Amino acid sequence: MLLQILAFCIPLASAVEDVVKEGLRSDDECLDGQCALNAVQLQRALRIPPSCPPFPEPYAPPMDCGRHVQQCGVLAIDTGLGFYGGLNGSKCANSSSPTGCTDQTNPPYSQPRAKVHGLWFETPPYGNSSCLHSHDWDTACQNQSWVFTPEAYCKEQACDSAGIPQCYSVKKLPTCYQGYRGPFAAGAQGELERRYMLWFVNHEWQKHGTCGQQDPTDYFAQVCRLSGPLVRAIDSYRMQGLDNYTDVHAIACKLSKDFDYVEISSTGGSTFGTNGEILLSACLNLATGQWHVAPVSQFERLCGDPAYVRPVL
């Protein structure tokens, strides 16, 4: 076995050494940009993370919150390296009809920087988390249906935020949702982006946030707080060269090693390809109202309530 390991490692070390030597040649020895290419090869060789177990795609097995944990879920972060999504996503690019560009049910997944997508309760079939509907806003909206239809909401790529029911309305964008492409553009395009993001934030609240006992302000404040360090780390990985959708697994691997409290639930894929999304396991402590990004094995310690016992189904 030792000989087999050495037989594998020595050629690998030699290959890296060759790349180092090639990358250090003087400029007058370079031909057709070959030195630059070798420098890139060296950078890739040195940043390959230690091996990680394969992460489930597109989704992990159903999440078990634990015997004394009533609510758990995932923090979804978009690396910005995917494709497909609304607001001029790939469907728009592949469409021959202008109306084909109105699919805005997801954020655009190809972006210059990472962004948080949302914080989702893993209710059945995704897990056994309870959905404890919020009080005032849930009651106010119980007789209203808000099924998103691009045709009704967006006309000629002009989205009207008035289509959001008032009981779900978040009037001000949380800091971590301030534009998925950086600062909003000027003119009509910027207004479209702002309205889209306003709709998207309300969509996240209506679909996911209302399963908890928080109000929208607290819910999104926690989303931004939890995602901030992770988003910045992913941006740094991208700056180091992990900047292709095929690097999403390597990014997830580095994230799980650089943040010891993180457990990768899955790297979400889709039937349209990859959305470049990383899902991190999290639990909600109902006594404190605080979410914790943590491995599932730590849910009981961080979020457990001895007074609550999950029913055996």
From TrEMBL:
Name the record gives this protein: Uncharacterized protein
**Which interval of the chain is the signal sequence?**
1-15
Q: Which residues form a coiled coil?
A: none
UniProt keyword terms in alphabetical order: Signal
Organism, by scientific name, is Symbiodinium natans
Q: Which domain of life is it from?
A: Eukaryota
The molecular function terms in GO held by this entry are: ribonuclease T2 activity; RNA binding
Claim: Mitochondrion is one of the keywords in the record:
no
